[in-house]
């Protein structure tokens, strides 16, 4: 019997795969062909996936870059009801590690990462991915990811705004705080930053990758969006983050003022090893994510499918003002 060779899930136009580490790179994918991102398939995924591992947020339509997401819950709702709420309401829903934890999605994830490595030559040490289901005109605020990241867009239309990882936009101190979980990944925003933004419009079947630690934000078009956000670690990003984490501990706990950019490449493995040992002996005490409280519940009968809890929401904000 002749072996069947599965076609690649990825296609890089213009021979730009080799630029994947250092530039904004667009490419095409075939995730929609798996059938795992229809409304029915997503509803089943949400039914089968632990609800306490589903991130649910809301925000204003076309949210300004400086705002922050508001967390909520969806206890008691079926997967189909959650998908319907995303279609009708103002929500951002993400089974955070579905692509690696759910068997059907894991098979697809393994395939796309194998194809990604083959096409680009990038050696991935480990990776994870979240399924993103979001309402029309929702967004993701200005932030930076700790790992190397790419976005595979499946349904709807959205625009990413990618900013260069310059000191003026993302300082080493800010990166340290994110890596040490002192803060969430959101960044301070100033209007002058827009002069640095590179817009990347994404249609279904398109994906984009950007250099590590590049700030970025996202705004959806006038339709429900489904995407897959992939984070992965290479030797280079592992060592880079190891240096930043160690420097962050040295800055905060020993009063030093180190610079990651001044660390020679030959010393980065030693910094990484020292950081791992320090984390094991004295883990950082901060966890900003754990302190992010829930302010609403998903309710299909409520405006925008958001039922605010007592003391929260626009009315509470108006009363406080």
Structure, described:
With 321 residues, the protein is of the alpha+beta class. The protein has a domain at 10-170 and 187-234 and 297-309: Jelly Rolls. The chain is built from eight helices and 15 strands. It has helices spanning 39-48, 79-88, 98-101, 103-120, 172-179, 235-254, 268-281, 314-320; strands spanning 10-11, 25-29, 54-58, 70-73, 92-95, 126-134, 139-143, 148-155, 158-162, 198-202, 206-210, 216-220, 225-233, 294-298, 306-308. The strands form two sheets. An eleven-stranded mixed beta sheet has the order 1-2-11-8-13-6-5-3-4-14-15. A four-stranded antiparallel beta sheet has the order 7-12-9-10, with no helix packed on it. α1 (39-48) packs across α2 (79-88), α5 crosses α6 (235-254) and α6 crosses α7 (268-281). It is globular and about 55 Å long. It starts with 9 loop residues before the first strand and ends with a helix.
List the helices and strands and how they pair.
Blueprint lengths: L9 E2 L13 E5 L9 H10 L5 E5 L11 E4 L5 H10 L3 E4 L2 H4 L1 H18 L5 E9 L4 E5 L4 E8 L2 E5 L9 H8 L18 E5 L3 E5 L5 E5 L4 E9 L1 H20 L13 H14 L12 E5 L7 E3 L5 H7 L1
Parallel strand pairs: 4-14
Antiparallel strand pairs: 1-2, 2-11, 3-4, 3-5, 5-6, 6-13, 7-12, 8-11, 8-13, 9-10, 9-12, 14-15
Helix pairs in contact: 1-2, 5-6, 6-7
Alpha-beta content class: alpha+beta
Low-confidence stretches: none
Order of helices and strands: EEHEEHEHHEEEEHEEEEHHEEH
Task: Please state the average pLDDT score.
Answer: 91
For the biggest β-sheet, the strand order reads 1-2-11-8-13-6-5-3-4-14-15
Helix fraction, binned, reads 25-40%
CATH superfamily of one domain: Cupin
Q: Give me the count of strands.
A: 15
Strand content: 15-25%
- The biggest beta sheet, please? 11 strands, mixed
The top-level CATH class of one domain is: Mainly Beta
Task: Write down the overall geometry.
Answer: globular
């Amino acid at each position: 019997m002749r072996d069947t060779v599965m076609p690649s899930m990825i296609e890089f136009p213009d021979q730009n795969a080799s630029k994947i580490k250092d530039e904004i790179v667009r490419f095409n994918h075939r995730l929609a062909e798996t059938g795992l991102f229809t409304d029915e398939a997503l509803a089943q995924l949400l039914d089968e996936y632990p609800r306490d591992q589903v991130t649910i947020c809301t925000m204003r339509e076309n949210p300004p870059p400086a705002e922050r997401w508001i967390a909520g819950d969806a206890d008691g709702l079926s997967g189909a009801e959650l998908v319907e709420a995303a279609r009708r309401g103002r929500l951002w829903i993400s089974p955070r590690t579905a692509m690696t934890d759910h068997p059907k999605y894991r098979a697809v994830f393994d395939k796309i990462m194998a194809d990604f490595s083959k096409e680009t030559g990038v050696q991935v040490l480990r990776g994870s991915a979240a399924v993103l289901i979001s309402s029309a005109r929702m967004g993701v605020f200005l932030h930076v990811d700790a790992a190397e990241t790419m976005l595979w867009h499946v349904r709807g239309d959205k625009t990413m705004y990618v900013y260069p990882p310059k000191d003026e936009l993302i300082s080493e101190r800010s990166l340290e705080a994110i890596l040490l979980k002192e803060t969430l990944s959101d960044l301070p925003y100033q209007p002058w930053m827009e002069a640095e933004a590179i817009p990347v419009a994404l249609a279904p079947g398109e994906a984009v990758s950007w250099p590590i630690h590049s700030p970025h934000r996202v705004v959806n078009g006038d339709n429900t969006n489904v995407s897959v956000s992939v984070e992965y670690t290479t030797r280079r990003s592992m060592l880079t983050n190891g240096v930043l984490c160690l420097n962050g501990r040295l800055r905060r706990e020993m009063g030093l003022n180190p610079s990651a950019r001044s660390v020679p490449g030959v010393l980065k493995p030693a910094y990484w090893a020292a950081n791992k040992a320090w984390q094991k002996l004295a883990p950082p005490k901060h966890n900003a994510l754990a302190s992010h409280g829930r302010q609403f519940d998903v309710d299909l009968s409520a405006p925008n499918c958001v039922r605010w809890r007592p003391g929260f929401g626009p009315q509470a904000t108006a009363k406080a003002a």
